Amino acid sequence: MEGLVEYPSLFPVILKVPDTIRAWRGRRHVIALSRLARAAARQSARRSGGVLKRLQKDGQGVPLPSNGWYWTVTHKPAYVAGVAGRKPLGIDIERIRPRSRNLFKKIADQQEWQLGSEDEWHLFYRFWTAKEAVLKAVGVGMKGLSNCRVVSIGSADTLTLVYQGTSWEIQQRILDGHLVAITTKGMTVHWDSLERRR
Predict the structure, then answer these.
(1) Angle 85-90-93 (CA atoms, 0-180°, nearest 5)?
(2) What is the pLDDT of residues 70-100, one digit of tens each?
(3) Which residues share a beta bridge with 70?
(4) Could you give the C-alpha distances from 193 to 1, 36, 54, 94, in angstroms and in order?
(5) Three-class secondary structure of residue 176 per DSSP
(6) Domains of the chain from N-terminus onward
(7) d(Cα 166, Cα 15) in Å, to the nearest integer?
(8) The whole model's pTM is what?
């Protein structure tokens, strides 16, 4: 198929949440965000030449491969994101904003904080989104946080983390005050698919 790249590439898709959905509350809001995020994952698979069929999760809420493709999603009030690929992967998006300072100790230790010299909240969200992306990729969620460590900051948009002896490369981008992180596992990330429309 013309214009499609084989599986060594990832096409994360980020969709802006429509104002109508943003105004909803409760379960209706969560269901709508989940559907929109899954639509983003399906778009991502199509960009890579794949098709996601039924999107199911296991008993712990970990996405199960669909039609031979791994997929992962994330959603926040303003944006949702999804990505699909041939290897386990993770994605996260967070709005950069001050939070409780108590979270600094939970997200990283002193050795990790010394790796970066950028704005403290920007660095906080770089670590947070990177770790969440890795924990999604390995299927353990935030309960694995203490075993996930940032070991190097390669540039303004790359980090390396280690989880239980396995190294994970992370790529990040800023979009409208939000930080997006994705695991790469040696795959090329094509950020041109940011903010694609349905």
Answers:
(1) 120
(2) 999 999 999 999 999 999 999 999 999 999 9
(3) 85
(4) 18, 15, 23, 18
(5) coil
(6) 9-193 (3.90.470.20)
(7) 31
(8) 0.91
